[in-house]
Amino acid sequence: MAKVLMYTTAICPYCVSAKRLLAAKGVEVDEIRVDRQPHLRQKMMADSGRHTVPQIWIGERHVGGFTDLWTLDKRGELDALLAG
């Protein structure tokens, strides 16, 4: 299974939704809380080109936010991506 990295904050409903979707698929997420480690938000923004959370990587691929993750799932592409 591919490694999943997600930048989040505690009060982000989209972060919660993304974690729930991935948990339902049996995926463990490596989470970086940018509200606890604000210096890592700069890295997230540099790597993703975005400033909102969540920002999700599956393996080396930047997926984007929750809506992007959900869209991949609805298209039937998420499971293959997670399989690595």
From TrEMBL:
What PROSITE patterns has UniProt attached to this entry? Answer: GLUTAREDOXIN_1, GLUTAREDOXIN_2
Keyword flag Electron transport? yes
Keywords, sorted A to Z: Cytoplasm, Disulfide bond, Electron transport, Redox-active center, Transport
This protein's source sits in the domain of life called Bacteria
State what this protein does. Answer: Has a glutathione-disulfide oxidoreductase activity in the presence of NADPH and glutathione reductase. Reduces low molecular weight disulfides and proteins.
| Family per similarity comment | Belongs to the glutaredoxin family.
- What's the protein here called? Glutaredoxin
At the highest ranks, the source species' classification is: Bacteria, Pseudomonadati, Pseudomonadota, Gammaproteobacteria, Cellvibrionales
The gene coding this protein: grxC
